[in-house]
Amino acid sequence: MQQPEDILHAGNSATPRKLWSIPEFRRLLRTREVSAVETVTALLDDMRAKRELNIFITETHDKALNQARDADKRLAAGVPRALDGIPIAVKDNFCTKGIKTTAGSKMLAVSRKSEDGFVPTYESSVTQRLLDAGAVILGKTNMDEFAMGSSTETSYFGPTINPVGVRLGFDNLVPGGSSGGSAAAIAADLAVGAIGTDTGGSIRQPASFCGVVGMKPSYGVCSRWGIIAYASSLDQAGAFGKSVRDVAAILDVIGGEDQKDATSVSSLSLRYEAALAQPQKKLRIGFPREIMRLKATADVESVWTAGQKIAQQLGAEVVDVSIPSLGYALPAYYIIALSEASSNLSRYDGIRYGYRANAPKDIIDLYERTRAEGFGEEVKRRIILGTYSLSAGYYDAYYLRALKVRRILADEFSAVFQKVDAMFMPATPTGAFEIGAHEGDPVQMYLEDVFTVPVNLAGLPAISVPVSRDCRGMPLGLQVIGPQLGDEKVVQVAAAVEAMTAH
Questions:
Q1: Which of 2, 83, 438, 469 could make a disulfide contact with 6, Cβ separation 3.0–4.6 Å?
Q2: Which of these is catalytic: 202, 243, 264, 302?
Q3: In what order do the strands lie in the sheet with 475-481?
Q4: Residues 113 and 122 sit within 8 Å (Cβ to Cβ)
Q5: Which of 231, 214, 69, 206 is nearest to 142 (CA)?
Q6: What is the mean pLDDT of residues 2-22?
Q7: Nearest to 332 by CA among 439, 234, 430, 424
Q8: Is 178 assigned a catalytic role?
Q9: Cα(444)–Cα(281) distance, rounded to whole angstroms?
Q10: Cα–Cα distance measured from residue 292 to residue 463, given in angstroms and rounded to the nearest whole number
């Protein structure tokens, strides 16, 4: 068998280190050309060496090695599971039994009951499916606090550094958010696959910034049970990888109906990897004409041009489409998401678990100080705005109106997908920005989500694939968007896009 350093330095030593794809890794593990323990040992060493990137909040060394040993035993016995021995990084808002889970917040990182903070006694449905498939969980990745942010800067543990930027000589660029740690883990070759959540772009935006592939499935495809909630009608688990096929392999495992989640899609049989082997018919690709009105930057134009060129190379029919309400998506999203966050985060009161203020004078003082001290500034801002939107006298003017916009937007998307198979849109207005670039101006940070939030409002599947670079050489992603439950078509088209840009 190869030694760990051979595994991670395969190929020309002058080129950046890269891990194999999941399908190739599967083959090498099953033919016993490499072992899970060797691979995981090398990755754990690398995680220690790259701690300055601040990618992981918690590293699960002992558990990962035990899982790798179990995988090697099954592989040696000829009874492999779908992801046996595959090293996976997990965003820190998935509850993991016996492993500290913080959601990037002091509220859960610090606890009067445990020095380790909040340690769940149960496993989220998504991570349980990974474990059942034989995956090795390397650790819990950094994220914006309670998934509220687009840069991983709001984390109680400090920001993650974009590994692509570091390779290009920039040590102060964000990886995106809120799943910035998961995207960075793939970009830094610290994991073969990763999972995250996407409420308004939190998988696709960091995938774009870090030059990796990231997909948000249709709402309800992946169970939300055991995920620390931000906005329940928008949150959706998804996956990161170096390729579309890697993402498909993970989604095949974590997707599917879950009786513990009432919003889980029933009787659904999506097969992501199998879809990649199916022949493609002539495609019709839609390009929404409203995109340039939302935010016309040089980077947007670059991705827009690349998308049209790729569509032509694929022999697709390029269709000019219109989504008139696209410009209203961002304000509607923030009203709905923040209103739901206000409700979801009311449970953090210092009584049952998590952080608790010291020596409170009375119950009111306990509530006020616990929440004031336990939540970061951005989370408190969003709770206040959400509570305002739901308050008497403003519910109809804000929240109810936002729900109507959401319905109109979903109907417009549905009408467009009667004419096209998929839509192409930029994932982000620009490439990765500097840490602190939007400090003191939350609206500018919210505008980073302008191209991603419409998909969440409509509950559609979308994937970000790197197709271009900005003037610094930082990656830019193209979104491939499909109709609701059209996930298989999305991965098919994304794989075709990836093939066109492989060089």
A1: 2
A2: 202
A3: 56-59, 136-141, 87-91, 193-197, 237-241, 213-216, 462-469, 475-481, 422-426, 284-288, 317-321
A4: no
A5: 206
A6: 46
A7: 234
A8: yes
A9: 41
A10: 20
**Secondary structure in 3-state letters for 55-76:** CEEEECHHHHHHHHHHHHHHHH
Rounded Cα–Cα distance for residues 414 and 232 (Å): 22
Q: Cα(first)–Cα(last) distance of the chain, in Å?
A: 31
| Ordered alpha helix ranges (H), 327-426 | 329-344, 363-374, 377-390, 401-416
- Among 155, 178, 179, 243, the one annotated catalytic: 178
pLDDT, one tens digit per residue, over 201-253 is 999 999 999 999 999 999 999 999 999 999 999 999 999 999 999 999 999 99
Nearest in space to 85 (alpha carbons), one of 1, 17, 197 = 1
Give residue-wise pLDDT tens across range 432-447: 999 999 998 999 999 9
83: closest CA among 280, 226, 248, 308?
A: 248
Instruction: Please report the DSSP string for 279-348 in residue order.
Output: PPPPPEEEEETTHHHH---HHHHHHHHHHHHHHHHTTPEEEEE--GGGGGHHHHHHHHHHHHHHHHGGG-
Pair 290, 324: CB distance under 8 Å: yes
pTM: 0.94
For tokens 């109680």, the residue is 156
Which one-letter DSSP state was computed for residue 432? P
Q: Answer yes or no: 419 catalytic.
A: no
- Tallying the residues shown for the chain, one arrives at 503
Task: Check: CB of residue 186 under 8 Å from CB of residue 219.
Answer: no
SS3 content of the chain, % helix, strand, coil (to 5): 45, 15, 45
Does the annotation count 21 as an active-site position? no
Question: One of 50, 91, 100, 216 is an active-site residue; which one?
Answer: 91
**Cα(162)–Cα(105) distance, rounded to whole angstroms?**
21
d(CA 414, CA 248): 24
Please state, as a whole number, how many other Cβ atoms lie within 10 Å of the Cβ of residue 177: 33
Confidence at residue 18, expressed as pLDDT on a 0 to 100 scale: 58
